[in-house]
């Protein structure tokens, strides 16, 4: 291995470059940085007769050309480098610098595994990463292009963690459509990872529940949490306003119900009858306070709540 400055004109990029997309804005930014403080990290090349083949550092090379530089600091690898070794070096260099987007990274690792007939465990050892991390990265390849592209969007709620949850759901239920339903809900309602996990918890606990019902429950909880923050910030007023005090009481009831569901989940027949009596009494009182309730069925009210969320 040798380190020295070489002419940019003598360097050729290899066709097997694992990075497929280059952001011109980022390259321009890197060029400005190099112009300001110089090249802080060398490119890696292989000597080939009178010229050099680029192993790693395509972005740095493009930035230097944009900056008008004539020479580049390079680490020169001696001896012949097999295509498999080339890909391994490129992968490790890009993984350490976090230069690849999630899809490029997964495709490159998968090809590296196929070319070398490696298991996930073997590949993780060669690339110097945890096996669980490698598995998380590779999950993206098992999804439709629609969801792969969502992960790449800067403003999308979908992350690799969401894909991992969706993959686990499909494995547990044996139904690939479930993971599509879940990810569609993540996109539509901008669900966080924590909210997505809550959807799965509800779905696994109440298997008869349609996915949209589990999502609706989490969305309702999201709104309730907003209200709890509101009451906490406005507690002084709430204590002197009868309606606000009533709403705080309902909020406490909901907290108790959620706590019971998380701990127990089921009610005896006797307890169901007692709670139903209390609910019907409360519904009658609410019908007096809010006359419009008398003109709507429970189903209509639930449908309206879902549409609002």
TrEMBL record:
Instruction: Report the protein name in the record.
Output: ParB/RepB/Spo0J family partition protein
Transmembrane domains' residue ranges: none
Please give the organism. Answer: Halanaerobium polyolivorans
Identify the keywords attached in UniProt to this record, alphabetized.
Chromosome partition, Coiled coil
Q: Specify the domain of life of the species encoding this protein.
A: Bacteria
Family designation: Belongs to the ParB family.
Which segments of the protein form a coiled coil according to its record?
Answer: 243-274
Task: Provide GO CC annotations from the record.
Answer: chromosome
Q: Which SMART domains match?
A: ParB
The record ties this protein, via Gene3D superfamilies, to: 1.10.10.2830, 3.90.1530.30
UniProt domain ParB-like N-terminal: residue ranges: 4-95
Mention one GO biological process in which this protein takes part, according to its record.
Answer: chromosome segregation
Molecular function (GO) terms for this protein are:
DNA binding
């Amino acid at each position: 291995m040798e380190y020295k400055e070489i002419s940019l004109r003598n360097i050729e990029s290899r066709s097997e470059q694992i990075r497929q997309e280059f952001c011109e804005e980022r390259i321009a930014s890197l060029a400005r940085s190099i112009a300001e403080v110089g090249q802080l990290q060398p490119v890696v090349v292989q000597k080939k007769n009178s010229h050099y083949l680029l192993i790693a550092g395509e972005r740095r090379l493009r930035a230097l050309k944009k900056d008008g530089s004539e020479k580049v600091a390079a680490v020169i690898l001696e001896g012949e480098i097999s295509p498999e070794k080339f890909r391994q070096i490129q992968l490790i260099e890009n993984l350490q610098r976090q230069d690849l987007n999630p899809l490029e990274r997964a495709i490159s690792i998968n090809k590296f595994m196929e070319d070398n007939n490696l298991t996930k465990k073997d590949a993780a050892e060669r690339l110097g990463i945890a096996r669980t991390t490698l598995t998380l990265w590779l999950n993206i390849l098992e999804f439709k292009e629609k969801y792969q592209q969502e992960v790449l969007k800067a403003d999308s709620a979908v992350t690799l963690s969401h894909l991992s949850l969706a993959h686990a759901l499909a494995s547990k239920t044996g139904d690939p459509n479930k993971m599509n339903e879940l990810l569609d809900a993540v996109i539509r309602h901008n669900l966080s990872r924590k909210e997505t996990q809550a959807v799965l918890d509800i779905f696994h606990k109440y298997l008869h529940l349609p996915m949209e019902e589990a999502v609706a429950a989490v969305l309702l909880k999201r709104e309730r949490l907003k209200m709890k923050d509101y009451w906490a910030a406005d507690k002084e007023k709430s204590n002197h306003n009868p309606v606000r005090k009533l709403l705080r009481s309902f909020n406490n009831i909901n907290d108790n119900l959620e706590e019971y569901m998380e701990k127990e989940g089921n009610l005896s027949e006797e307890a169901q009858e007692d709670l139903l009596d209390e609910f019907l009494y409360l519904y009658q009182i609410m019908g007096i306070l809010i006359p419009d309730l008398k003109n709507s069925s429970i189903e209509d009210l639930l449908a309206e709540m879902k549409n609002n969320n």
